[in-house]
Design brief:
The complex is a heterodimer of chains A (320) and B (168). Chain A is of the alpha/beta class and 320 residues long. Chain A is 36% helix and 14% strand. Chain A has helices spanning 23-36, 65-76, 97-106, 121-131, 150-164, 182-193, 223-227, 251-258, 262-265, 288-291, 298-317; strands spanning 54-59, 80-85, 111-116, 138-144, 171-175, 198-202, 218-220, 232-235, 273-275. Chain A has a five-stranded parallel sheet with strand order 7-6-5-8-9. Chain A has a four-stranded parallel sheet with strand order 2-1-3-4, sandwiched between helices. In chain A, 46% of the residues are buried. Chain B has helices spanning 8-22, 35-47, 65-68, 99-108, and strands at residues 28-32, 54-56, 87-95, 116-124, 136-140, 150-155, 161-166. In chain B, helix 1 crosses helix 2. Chain B is globular, with a radius of gyration of 15 Å. The chains are: A alpha/beta (320), B alpha/beta (168). The interface between A and B is medium-sized, with 21 and 21 residues. Chain A: Belongs to the aspartate/ornithine carbamoyltransferase superfamily. ATCase family. Chain A: Heterododecamer (2C3:3R2) of six catalytic PyrB chains organized as two trimers (C3), and six regulatory PyrI chains organized as three dimers (R2). Chain A: It is an enzyme of class 2 (transferase).
């Protein structure tokens, strides 16, 4: 099957989704990310790999953390970084997505980092570049609708590998609002590809998609049951802004049943790690005692995220 | 046969002796991955240097990145000491075009401003493409090796070092 993310030689050309990406490529990204973590400790926190390249952060939907970490990653690689908040710009004046992209190409873009509320928007851009003979310009999906958030999935995998070393003996639970979560989709795809033998998904029926079992996961509607003996707990943010209609009684009610408290975490293995993609809703999906507790690796996730994004960008920009 | 591939273990002893003559108390060693690190580990022990060994992987500084991309799995560079104003001895197994040394120098200066940088190599195979010369060298090849061939340091399971000529 044609994978638009890979070039004819099987190398990464765009990063659009983790679904269908070969294990070797996932492992290569994690391997390359490792030496990048050391750059933050140097006097000069810069590498020359993307010198002279222009990276455009094109965010059709607001995000602070993801945009900032992409910006830091590109700057540590010596790229010129241009941030566009298209949410407040020309599309509001009626310009189409591809016209915006063509204009930015005319300004000399080498790479697009795209966040869009519609699933598939980064695909559309990648195919457009391909169809118009601009294969040298890469697209990184920084989150599209409910579809995928591949760099978040990758940094979660990096974090798990950092603390647990080996994927093939783990039980991992993904907890919360899977229905609205592009992060969950990327996480499940990556965990499965990397050989995690048991992926559990835990959440209320109204917030889980109906086709979950087809993704090869075990579904739990009882949090206590699902957390028993797990090595890794991956919390999801309750997506208030994506929620339409009464899927939940109230956030207090949600916390009571689905919030990760120390008492529920105690059912997992004693050395279990707790991840959260941020921004956290304390007292909604996660108790402060857990968020600030010794099992939480939420801040290291942010730091690793920079190295993982550096790895992706340097794999895309080289060898052309 | 104009170029006999010499015994790496013997060269290692000779290189250590040459460095020892000039060594100062605050000198530090930094090996360039992969062969240079094996060699530097030996020299570090033979010369009795008190600071730990530093290592550099120049993958992120290579000048062929834009044409070739990132290939082999890069390792972490680790310089566990302050290099400002210190005499630094860069260690590599084979000096050839000089491009690896150029990359290593660039990377080194992102860690600080060394007082002096010297270059120690086991073998100089000539055919430089940059104005770089070794400070300490155990063996210089008299004839150019076939273009595209690679001269590499290898280490066997027992830790014994040897030089291998690999065809293009």
């Amino acid at each position: 099957m044609h994978n638009p993310q890979l070039n004819a030689k099987g190398e990464l050309q765009h990063l659009l989704t983790l679904d269908g990406l070969p294990r070797a490529i996932l492992e290569q990204i994690l391997d390359i990310a490792e030496p990048f973590t050391e750059v933050a400790e140097r006097e000069v926190k810069k590498l020359p790999l993307l010198r002279g390249k222009s990276v455009f952060n094109v965010f059709f939907e607001n995000s602070t953390r993801t945009r900032t970490t992409f910006e830091i990653a590109a700057k540590r690689l010596s790229a010129d970084v241009i941030n566009l908040n298209v949410a407040t710009s020309s599309t509001n004046k009626g310009e189409t997505l591809l016209d915006t992209i063509d204009n930015l190409c005319a300004m000399g873009a080498d790479m697009f980092v795209v966040r869009h509320a519609s699933s598939g928007a980064p695909y559309l851009i990648a195919e457009h570049l391909q169809a118009t003979g601009r294969e040298h310009i890469s697209v990184v999906n920084a989150g599209d609708g409910r579809h995928a958030h591949p760099t978040q999935g990758l940094l979660d995998m990096y974090t798990i590998r950092h603390y647990k070393k080996d994927f093939t003996n783990l039980t991992v639970a993904v907890v919360g609002d899977v229905l609205h979560s592009r992060v969950a989709r990327s996480e499940i795809a990556a965990l499965t590809t990397l050989g995690v033998p048991e992926v559990r998904v835990i959440g209320p029926k109204t917030l889980l998609p109906t086709d979950l079992e087809r993704m090869g996961v075990r579904v739990f509607h009882d949090m206590r049951e699902g957390l028993k003996g797990v090595d890794v707990v991956m919390m999801l943010r309750l997506q208030n802004e994506r929620m339409q209609g009464a899927l939940l009684p109230s956030s207090q009610e949600y916390f009571k049943v689905w919030g990760l408290t120390p008492e529920k975490l105690a059912l997992a293995k004693p050395d279990a790690i707790v991840l959260h993609p941020g921004p956290m809703n304390r007292g909604v999906e996660i108790d402060s005692a857990v968020a600030d507790g010794q099992n939480a690796v939420i801040l290291p996730q942010v730091t690793f995220g920079i190295a993982v994004r550096m790895a992706v960008m340097s794999m895309l920009a080289g060898g052309k | 046969m104009p170029n006999l591939i010499p015994d790496a273990e013997v060269l290692c002893e000779q290189l250590a002796a040459k460095i020892a003559e000039q060594l100062t108390a605050d000198s530090v060693l930094i090996g360039v991955h992969t062969g240079g690190v094996w060699l530097a580990e030996r020299l570090h022990a033979m010369l009795g240097i008190s600071e730990p060994l530093g290592t550099l992987d120049v993958a992120f500084y290579r000048d062929d990145y834009s044409s070739r991309g990132l290939h082999a799995r890069p390792r972490k560079s680790e310089i566990p000491f302050d290099i400002d104003d210190r005499p630094v001895i860069l260690v590599d197994d084979v000096l050839y075009t000089g491009r690896t040394t150029r990359a290593a120098l660039n990377e080194l200066f992102d860690y600080g401003r060394p007082g002096r940088v010297e270059l120690a190599v086991l073998v100089d195979r000539g055919e430089r493409q940059l104005p770089i010369a070794p400070t300490y060298c155990a063996h210089t090849l008299t004839e150019p090796l076939p273009a595209g061939s690679r001269l590499r340091l290898v280490r066997d399971d027992a830790g014994v070092l040897s030089l291998r000529l690999l065809d293009a």
